[in-house]
Design goal:
Length: 154
């Protein structure tokens, strides 16, 4: 029986910067059944939307590392083009240019990008952008959890 897993993530802020939250849901799919293997959320008092989007993926990959039976292969579904394009396209140039943008400025959130790059290297990952607030039940669940996290740190 072939199993696969999808990781749904979301992050957000109330104000940018402001109080923020992140969330993830790890879904295991086997044949025609799917189940939530793990979900979690958290928040920070003073942060940005992009930092929370990155934190959501980092926390999900940290959790995946601790799951005994989890395959080392997954699809990461994010509604953040910043995360999806950053990890699949932009990061190679940033690393080649000593973490500078094409405009020669320091890459924002470098600490999180470095951590995400390291964690992502431990898995075989596909990165999929999903439209936010478009009815995907796991993306919607992540959004709800993110809002709960924001409310908890206000």
């Amino acid at each position: 029986m072939e199993t696969s897993q999808k990781i749904f993530t979301d992050g957000g802020c109330s104000g940018n910067p402001g109080p923020g939250g992140w969330a993830y849901v790890i879904v295991i799919q086997a044949l025609h059944e799917e189940q939530i293997a793990k979900k979690e959320y958290g928040g920070q008092k003073d942060t940005t939307n992009n930092r929370m989007e990155l934190t959501a993926v980092i926390e999900a990959l940290r959790a995946l590392k601790t799951m005994n039976d989890a395959p080392r292969k997954a699809t990461v579904c994010t509604d953040s083009q910043y995360v999806q394009k950053g990890i699949t396209e932009w990061i190679r140039a940033w690393k080649a240019n000593s973490w500078k943008t094409s405009g020669k400025k320091p890459v924002k959130n470098q600490d999180l990008w470095v951590e995400l790059d390291k964690l992502a290297g431990e898995f075989t990952l596909n990165w999929e952008w999903v439209r936010g607030h478009a009815g995907n039940k796991y993306n919607e669940l992540c959004d709800k959890m993110t809002q709960e996290a924001i409310a908890s740190v206000r």
